[in-house]
Amino acid sequence: MANENENIKIVKDATCTFCGCVCDDMELHVDLDEKRITKAKNACVLGRAWFAEHTIEDAPAAMIDGKEVTIEEAIEEAAQTLVKAKFPITYGLSDTTSEAQREAVAITDYIKGNIDTTTSVCHGPSGLAFQGVGESTSTLGEVKNRADLVIYWGGNPAESHPRHFGRYAVTPKGMFTPNGKKDRTVVLVDVRKTKSAGVADILIRPKPGKDFEILWALRALVKGNKLSANEGEWFWGVNIEEETGVSLETLTDLAERMKNCRFGVLFFGMGLTMTRGRHFNSGALLALATDLNKYTHFVAKPVRGHGNVTGADNVVAWQTGYPFGVNFSRGYPRFNPGEFTTVDTLSNGDADAALIIASDPGSNFPKKAIDHLKNIPVITLDTKSTVTSKLSHVAFKTATYGINTGGTVYRMDDVSITLRPAFESPFPDDETILKKIKKRVHELTLKKIHPGGASGEAKVAAVNPL
Amino acid sequence: MVDKMMLIPGRSSKQGTSLNQGKLKDEYQKITSTLEMNKDDMAKRDLVDGDKVRMWNEIGETIVSCVGKKPEDLSAGLLFIPYGPPSSQLMASDTAGTGMPLSKHMMVEIEKVK
Amino acid sequence: MSASMRIVNGEVYDPKNNINGEIKEICIENGKIVDSVSDEATIIDAKGMAIMPGGVDIHCHIAGPKVNLARKLMPEARRHDVHPSTPFTRSGSGGTTPSTFAAGYRYATLGYTTAMEAAVSPIGARHVLEEFEDTPIIDKGFYVLLGNNIFLHNLIREKRMEEFEQAVAWWVCATKAYTVKLVNPGGDEPWKGERNSNVSDIDEKTGEAGDLSPRQIIEAFVKTVNKQGYPHPPHIHCNNLGHSGNYKTTLETMKTAGDLRAHIAHIQFHSYGGELGKNPISKAAEIAEYVNNHPNITCDVGQVMFGNSTIMTADAPLAYLLRGHSKGKWVNADTECESGCGILPFAYQEHIYMHTLQWAIGLELFLLSEDPWRIILSTDHPNGGSFMAYPKLIKLLMDEKFRHEEMKRVNQKALLKCSLPELKREYTLNEIAIITRAGPAKALGLETKGHLGVGADADITIYDVMDDKEMMFSTPRYVIKSGNTMIENHEFKTDSKGKVYHITPEYDNKIEETLKPFFESYYSIEFSNYAVDDRYLHDHHEIIKTG
Fold this sequence. Notes:
- The complex is a heterotrimer.
- Chain A is an alpha/beta fold.
- Chain A folds into 3 domains: 4-53, no CATH class; 62-122 and 307-462, 3-Layer(aba) Sandwich (Rossmann fold); 124-302, Dimethylsulfoxide Reductase, domain 2.
- In chain A, helix 2 crosses helix 18 (430-449).
- The radius of gyration of chain A is 24 Å and the shape is globular.
- Chain B has one domain (5-112): Beta Barrel (Barwin-like endoglucanases).
- Chain B contains 4 helices and 6 strands; from the N terminus they run βααβαβββαβ.
- In chain B, strands 1-5-2-4-3-6 form a 6-stranded mixed β-barrel.
- Chain C is an alpha/beta fold.
- Chain C has a domain at 57-81 and 113-446: TIM Barrel, CATH 3.20.20.
- Chain C contains 17 helices and 28 strands.
- Chain C starts with a strand and ends with a strand.
- Chains in contact: A-B, A-C.
- At the A-C interface, helix 3, helix 4, strand 8, helix 5 and helix 13 of A face helix 1, strand 9, strand 10, helix 2 and helix 3 of C.
- Strand 8 (134-138) of chain A pairs parallel with strand 20 of chain C.
């Protein structure tokens, strides 16, 4: 008891990696004896749970087919499995450091496999829209400093990104918004009235699946065009309000507000990407933001999900040239969403082995994809037991990024932050395991190229993977 | 015969906090098996809070319990459920060349489980 | 560690040491050039070959947030330009914004062993260093964007110059940068805060209070950086890039530096006469004359090469202006309190007046240069074209006949508005070695680069001497980096990571007390999480001395 206080460590300016807000102002109180975080000052409800629940569990660090093995044995088995496969896939990566993500891409390059991240089932369609129309965007601090019109479209940040309002976009006082929320108009567009509705000055509730129509109508109205020759009609014979659930007056008012603000921002969520229209919805919104720059300064930003999903996009993009859905089977990266994205590689039955890092497709993928996952050898790295780790051939239990290990994460606006770990874990981190798998698969793939023979062996020895 | 309804899976803060405890824990399983439904729609089907309903479409089916929402918060014909294994059972795998299954826009039928 | 090596029988081009094509032996040990090596050293017979120091690119955009946005934006630009892996090297993809691995390997395949990323917002420094770690073979560094930094503007405005100096040094250290970069100084505030407007004159007052001109900003940085003795002076992208009549702004910018050192980036884009809004004419002669007569000025050309390019710039208003022509996809990316950014795909076409004139002005600047040490080869990759076009550019400079052949294919009206058709000069191999190696190394203050004297880094390129200079410079037979043979008979033999160069000017920690409150109010990340820590340099970096 006398030593109680000595074993409490305080970590200031630590980073919460639960959601894409990546708030880096946590003050963590760490009980070093118990190896747990007892208090996370400044954290939201999700962050508090994130820090409180990641304790050290008593479980094997590595298992093969549910039986405890040494980490080395598991690495060997993982490497052999991946090298043997004809169409190995790597997936996940949004809840790990960019250092680990870099290793995962390297492994996939060496085994000529397929790499994809949770982006493909999150804002992947926004990534495709980005390739079509580009994006006017900004870091979150610029929103805090300048935005006088803030629109949330198809998202519920109050529950998914609780501090988005308070830290970045609605209430904070910035350089040109000295009165915080009073200097801003907040608009929320969503089919449901969610907990986020509380911050909205204007609430717009369209019919489900009509986002594209509304965004396209707004593009016309912003340019000063009529929607059709007949007042109130979206197109011939179709009343806009009946079609979309939103009146022409509401849309005209919104268009005027958008044109007349000083610095406007459109935040958008998976209400656009996961519904009818997908990348067309995101594309319409990005095009609208671009159009508005003719009149004022306007930016848009997808509200990204997991802690480092933005890092996954960045790392895969800088190493391969493409953000997700990348295949190396020809010895160089190819990009084809719909073919090399994971829901497709699984549900089409292409994949014959899977390396899954910090993700649980077994519990949230479409049924058909999950069914295939059950039939192939799966290697998982996860901090907790999941549906996917339960069905894995090789399962590693790893340390939690930002709690047990350092490294780099990218916030939803591409700003990178270095993590400050709170306490050590007995389990190795993702990067360490992946580095070892990489080294081994590289040796094995070179042996494939130069089987046997002195010169082959010598060449293998001379090559040290970067 | 039966009206089709639109199911919108999404995140909720409870789903998020329970996720941290572990996806195999009871709390997460319970939250991802709780369906939000317009009160009037429930009344029409003779459902009260906590009743079990079978929900199905051409992909699969799942059994969840339902809870009522005020009509002004959740329009008639809409259903909301936090993401999780039950919503996966109903999700089609076609991504229309994008990689993204239609995860928020599923037409389903429901009936009370006796 | 690398073995010792002796390169014999080759023609050596080492302008810094006044060696111009003489047959001379080059000895290498422990990654450096040495006087002699033992008889056991590996021998490379370079008969019929030209030996030069490894190339040094003083201005390119190859890594960091904006480059990565461009990669994500344009899958179509690299689909048909794949970069397969080898047993020794990683795969990648090319186009005008290659993936990190492809960028490193492709520089090496041209015989370049050093490249400087020319524009990184401070908040993007960590990202650029992460990409550098995945950019193999070449040594690199980056210039940090400080010319639109609101905190620094406030200090200039309030005439707190001592604190300004401290803060500049703090920022350079906090980001591990090589020098400071100014891009359209003063232009961001009207862009972000005044409905996408811009500053149009070096003496125009801008900002919320309307009391700060680009000239004041430029002057403050030039004085500070010269006083603190950075190895490379402020790297300046002048106001009014691309606008007709902008050569006056460029001259005024250079005059603002007085006799202090300054580097003018991609000066071709800043050498236009004519009236604003109308077609430009060449003012290459005026610009070249000023540079020729002012040894304190260095510049890189920013040559335009016909074909695909990617516009990527911290000059956001410029990118939006070009988007008005292209009408296609466009990225704008504002960085809080620090910078702006614009990106779009682009193509330079021979039949377009403007593009031909830009091409011609770049060549004029090279051909009118009286001191090749200070007018350095660049395409402002990928803005004027890819670095992969350097061999063709070298041929244009070395081969007058080829130049005239090319001139037949371009817009003839534009050729009437410049002196290119009359210029007879042909660059020599020695001059090429200056504008691609010795000159940029000197301008960067990298004493171990750009030459082959004892003590220099053993970064060496060996070319087969050929009449077709484009072919010659596209296909070096050997590329040696830090004494290791990376490429032998045109094939990769191994892989390596290059160094990161940065500087650490001194400052008084007290400046953090002034900085911190500003960060707490106006940044979205915590002050203590802003500076990049040493881990991002890994174990391969080098600090170049200041002062």
